[in-house]
Amino acid sequence: MKSIFKLYVLLAVLFCAISSPAQNTGEGVRFTDKSLDELLAQARTENKLVFIDCYATYCPPCKLMLKKEFPKKEMGDYLNAGFVCAKMNLDLGEGPELARKWDVHAFPTFLFLDSGGNILYRMTGYMAADEFIAAAKAGL
Predict the structure, then answer these.
(1) Torsion over CA of 124, 128, 133 and 136, rounded to 10 degrees?
(2) Which residues contact 84 (CB under 8 A, 6 or more apart)?
(3) Helix (H/G/I), strand (E/B), else coil: 45
């Protein structure tokens, strides 16, 4: 019985470690916590595009991107320079409405928008940083 309890405790600790969001420190992608309208206004002011990481809380590849790829320096160098970056949980708040509007059916979905809110390019699924950057550059 004690070994089962220990297993549950270990699994809970591991789940929390995987589920905890990456911090906006270091050299990786700096995500901002703003509404879509605020993101678009900031993009117009800074003459940038908008990058949105559309995710769901139950999505393991979404958590891996946040933990392993977005903290990398090369991801920060690419995305922070030309984009206002945000993460949006499409399960909560305005998320379901945005998922319908943007036709998002898989997670993670990465959207690149102009400052008017028009989708310029989209990518779906987990990608290593170098693959992500190459695909984004090719698509844009």
Answers:
(1) -10
(2) 32, 39, 42, 43, 46, 48, 49, 50, 51
(3) helix
Q: What is the pLDDT of residues 85-138, one digit of tens each?
A: 999 999 988 899 999 999 999 999 999 999 999 999 999 999 999 999 999 999
> Taking a C-beta distance cutoff of 8 angstroms, is the pair 75, 129 a contact?
yes
Chain centroid offset of residue 8 CA: 29
Query: Residue 63: helix, strand or coil by DSSP?
Result: helix
**3-state SS string over 84-113?**
EEEEEECCCCCHHHHHHHHCCCCCCEEEEE
Sheet of 83-89: strand order equals 31-32, 83-89, 49-55, 109-113, 119-124
